[in-house]
């Protein structure tokens, strides 16, 4: 186990792994015996927890990441990524191996992710004392929905440290997501699978602890429910051509949390999120790059169309 447990602004729980990126000519990909991939097939560290941690660190927040990692080449890539960006990492042994996925990326930046669920075991757990120690040294904890983070929620809520989570493309019905949705103080999700985003956002707030719930909607902006009031957050034009949507939701969440921990009101936090999410769409999936604080603040201050 590697560890660096100094005080942190944000503890990120779970979501460490590697992705293999394949740019395909179309999504859905028509059946064929084979495809020639001229752009190459690349494997790099970076799944949802890694991207959240990278985004927070790029904005100047002291960030620590806790997850299970295998003693394998994929785990080595994750460890190297954290060293390169100065992000504290507590890596607990995972005999089943480091989480991995394959991302098929279409010409318009959309992606299809294939997750390897064999890299987990039903009995996987984070040691409660480790959770208490790292959460107690943090101002905020962001919990990804990867296994086994759900089993950590009871310990985390007992610490009293504010929690956030990202439900990704939850349909509002899948029971797996509910413990995360109702335990967090700030909830992010995508509106992609929601027929009525406002109804889902209000149900999360009514049944859980969240005073702030945000549903991102791509080019249509986002829905922000804060203290019972629903507002629409306009999208921000990307600063360059859109090449990949991978990591846009993580970038939004990281920038929103930066604003929240800086004392900004929810509307300003959402503006930060929109700027960071638009920036992320201009970064190829084969790279791990996040917007910095100076550029975020400069672009967020620009007049709105």
Automatic annotation (TrEMBL):
<feature type="domain" description="Carbohydrate kinase PfkB">
    <location>
        <begin position="187"/>
        <end position="287"/>
    </location>
</feature>
<dbReference type="InterPro" id="IPR011611">
    <property type="entry name" value="PfkB_dom"/>
</dbReference>
<dbReference type="Pfam" id="PF00294">
    <property type="entry name" value="PfkB"/>
</dbReference>
<protein>
    <submittedName>
        <fullName>Sugar kinase</fullName>
    </submittedName>
</protein>
<dbReference type="InterPro" id="IPR002173">
    <property type="entry name" value="Carboh/pur_kinase_PfkB_CS"/>
</dbReference>
<keyword id="KW-0418">Kinase</keyword>
<keyword id="KW-0808">Transferase</keyword>
<dbReference type="InterPro" id="IPR029056">
    <property type="entry name" value="Ribokinase-like"/>
</dbReference>
<dbReference type="GO" id="GO:0016301">
    <property type="term" value="F:kinase activity"/>
</dbReference>
